[in-house]
Design brief:
alpha/beta; Rossmann fold; four-stranded parallel sheet; two-stranded parallel sheet; 41% helix
Length: 247
């Protein structure tokens, strides 16, 4: 399968011409965990905004039947009542570490709603929580928390280490959704949902990073000490979605 650089308009134009899609589900992103977001705020903002801009504009030009934009929970304000409801999306600034990425993705919601109003483009916007599962990114420089912890524990176990370091206090909470469950949600939304309002996709429960770490420690059999590096950020205090609109 040919690869395309979606940040470049000529590549996007060529992709549409070759594949001639009737529906596009836009999942491509430059994304990572807290560390990657701190190191690449400009790149993450530019790349994610550029990809969406080019893909949505080309969708308009070719008369695409439907465009499905997958957003991010990072778009929500830092301090949002839990569980997060879609109506709260614009009621504050995102958590600072993730703000460039989250705002770039959120801007595409505005673009889709504007294109629906002016051009009649059928675009929908979905907001999944943190995902995990087969095919995850285990690169320590850019992975999210579950694959990052799995790799840390496995490597520490293999090396016979007596401790591992974990970022933050462990008090922050996150909601996680298995990737295949998310794929089913995306499929159903593509088939059945045609409204301009964003829709949350989640599992319906949260877990603290400390409890998650202990769970992965047990599953990997690591018996060493956990050292919490409180000089590193926790990120957003809590993340858990209200999924009643999706239901």
């Amino acid at each position: 399968i040919e690869e395309f650089d979606l940040t470049r308009e000529p590549d996007v134009e060529r992709m549409y011409a070759q594949m001639r899609p009737t529906v596009v589900i836009h999942l491509a992103a430059e994304v990572g965990g807290i560390g990657a977001n701190r190191e690449n705020p400009g790149r993450f903002f530019y790349a994610n905004l550029a990809m969406g801009l080019h893909l949505i504009e080309r969708a308009r030009l070719v008369g695409l039947k439907k465009f499905v934009q997958v957003g991010t929970i990072c778009a929500y304000p830092k301090f949002t009542p839990v569980p997060f409801r879609e109506e709260e999306l614009w009621n504050g600034y995102p958590e600072e570490t993730n703000a460039p990425y989250g705002i770039a993705k959120k801007a595409l919601l505005v673009m889709l709603q504007a294109y629906r109003q002016q051009y009649g483009l059928n675009g929908i916007y979905l907001l999944p929580v943190n995902l995990y599962g087969p095919g995850d990114n285990f690169d320590p420089s850019s992975s999210h928390v579950i694959p990052a912890l799995i790799r840390k524990f496995v490597e520490a176990q293999e090396a016979g280490a007596d401790h591992i370091e974990v970022w933050g206090t462990g008090q922050a909470s996150r909601e996680f959704l298995y990737v295949q469950d998310c794929a089913r949600g995306l499929t159903l939304a593509t088939q059945r949902y045609d409204s301009p309002e964003p829709v949350n996709l989640g599992a319906g429960f949260e877990i603290t990073i400390r409890d998650l770490t202990e769970k992965i420690r047990r599953l990997t059999g690591f018996e060493g000490k956990l050292v919490w590096d409180r000089s590193k950020p926790d990120g957003q205090p809590r993340r858990c979605l209200d999924t009643s609109r999706a239901e």
